[in-house]
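Figure S7 source data.
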Amino acid sequence: MRSSFKGGVHPPEEKGLVKDSPVVDFPLSSRYYVLLQQHLGAPSRAIVKSGENVKKGQTLSEPMGFVSAPVHAPTSGTVKEITRMVHPVTGLLGPCIIIDADGKDEWLEGLPAVRDPFTMTHDDLMEAVRSAGVVGMGGATFPTHVKLSPPKGKTIDTFIVNGVECEPYLSSDHRLMLEEPDRVLNGARVAMKILGLEKAYLAIEANKPDAIRVMEQKAPPEIQVVSLKVKYPQGAEKQLIKALTDREVPSGGLPMDVGAVVQNAGTCAAIWDACAAGIPLIERITSITGRGIVQPKNVRVRVGTLLKEVIDFCGGVKDAAKLIFGGPMMGIAQFTSEIPIMKGTSGVLVLTEKDTNISEYSACISCGRCVEACPMGLIPSTLSKLGEKGQWQKAAENNLMDCIECGCCTYVCPARRPIVHFIKHLKALSRSAGAKSKGA
Ligand code: SF4
Ligand code: SF4
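Tokens for the predicted iron/sulfur cluster complex:
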């Protein structure tokens, strides 16, 4: 087993609620809510109109820039309205296409377009990934075609499939690797072809011995399955690269700067669907879990399905105190379940009063625990104090932008300081100042 990275924490894994639950298909809904911004980067723009009939897999929006991605119809039906609804990640109102399903679930003509990706050209594979709207499905949602396009001068020699899934409670990648290993491995081989690489790692945390076993049996010789020590955030890109290659991504840098490209296991499966069948990213596996859910499940669900319907499918909630989009460490608390499942929704967590730690925070007691826990070598206590005063310039001098928002500092803080919240606030201030200066 590989050694790990500096810092990190060991929160309770809480995977037992769904790790052994086979994926179940969520039935067709009568209405879907497809947000136009489901990726990092420039938004996408609607190319359909209210009243228009659409087919499953039809492109609904066009990207507005290279770092952007289109969205597609999750089923056949009619565009009811192009409106705005609460975006679960930003918390703001975001543009959204509402589709009323016709119940036929008819594919766009020509889909699926079965073909052999290993006979396709580099450019055709890239176009297949780009036009299918594939984005990082581990939650980061960075457009995949951008990650697979290293700029001139950057030599890539390492491809890593990220099957770590270190976030507590969540098991969507775990189940995918157990139940559909070939989609993951074939997608990885396509990504390797695009990058011109002959070897890759598939990294899995040691707490998934069944997935490690299946992948070791199935993986071709060019993909090495590596078991990694259980430590959060082992699945963060920079920590993963350090654990596997001993290379450190420099401050302000990207994995490409040290010759590495990392793609999540679910993303590899989506790359395969896009290249081998022309199927866009319109569904995913998501873990609906936590002790606040009556029957926690792993559900295959279309993008755009209302979360409330999926929670009802899991028996509803009991003693629910907190709803989180994502896991407990990096997820985002929500005030409503009237929000849609997105491409990056690897899980939804409902916590009970007993599981939550809702209490007032107090002044920093300079215990240093957050500094020890920070996997990025930052001084979170300083950043949190600067955050209270909104001093983003000083925070920038303290490497604010290197923070990966992993939540380790908040997790260990005995004063219960919402450090990540302060850091996100500082980053927002810094970005808005940057935007204003560009506009000036
Ligand atoms: S400062 Fe950022 S990177 Fe460091 S522990 Fe806190 S959230 Fe993680
Ligand atoms: S863990 Fe909390 S109390 Fe301790 S130094 Fe960090 S911010 Fe201060």
